[in-house]
Write a structure and sequence with these properties.
Layout (H helix, E strand, L loop, with lengths): L1 H20 L3 H25 L7 H14 L8 H29 L5 H10 L3 H17 L1 H12 L4 H8 L3 H21 L3
Helix pairs in contact: 1-2, 2-3, 2-4, 3-4, 4-6, 4-7, 4-8, 6-7, 6-9, 7-9, 8-9
């Protein structure tokens, strides 16, 4: 029963995506209503990992959705593909926010030492997120699919089955890519002194 409901939901989202990309504005509104809860779940999971982000899940979902609908070239093939792209967009939103905070921090380096120390302590995860982003970009140059697996699993919280569907590979391939990518990223971060 659960699998049947899941298949129906997947089909419904896929149909809405195709109608929306075909120019049906009503389908876009229906799509947002249909995927909103799942996008919020993804955002909450990501923000739990990015402890010090100033964004709330709702704000992250709204910003990501605005960027998604603004992509004129995006072709969403199905539900899994949509959520895979949503993961990428959420990652970009968080990385952009971290970069902006670091730029702002550099701009305000003349603040009193006590204030500067408090600011540094409250934003110490920004460099970690940026380091991970740069490492993922390096991984993508050599192993694009493995980088996509990390992005979808870490940033979107997608399961192996959903990732496999989005990438068109078997679940065991997703498992291997995940294990490889984790090892590669740890080695890369260590190599770069992080």
């Amino acid at each position: 029963m659960v699998e049947q409901r899941s298949a129906e939901q997947t089909h419904e989202v896929t149909a809405l995506l195709h109608a929306w990309r075909g120019g049906d504005a009503g389908a876009g509104e229906a799509l947002l209503a249909r995927v909103y809860a799942e996008l919020r779940r993804m955002a909450r999971g990501q923000l739990r990992r990015e402890h010090l982000s100033t964004l709330e899940p709702t704000a992250l979902v709204h910003e990501a959705y605005l960027r998604l609908v603004d992509q004129k070239r995006a072709e969403f093939h199905d539900r899994a593909h949509f959520f895979a792209i949503a993961a990428t967009v959420m990652r970009r939103v968080l990385v952009d926010q971290a970069r902006a905070r670091l730029a702002d921090k550099r701009q305000h380096m003349a603040v009193p030492l006590a204030v500067a120390t408090d600011l540094a302590a409250s934003r110490d995860r920004d460099p970690e997120l940026l380091d991970l982003d740069r490492a993922l970009e390096r991984l993508a140059v050599e192993h694009e699919r493995a980088a996509r697996v990390v992005e979808m699993r870490f940033f979107a919280g997608l399961g192996e089955r959903e990732i496999g569907e989005a990438l068109g590979v078997a679940e065991r391939t997703v498992k291997r890519d995940w294990a490889f990518a984790r090892a590669w990223l740890l080695a890369d971060l260590a190599r770069n002194g992080l």
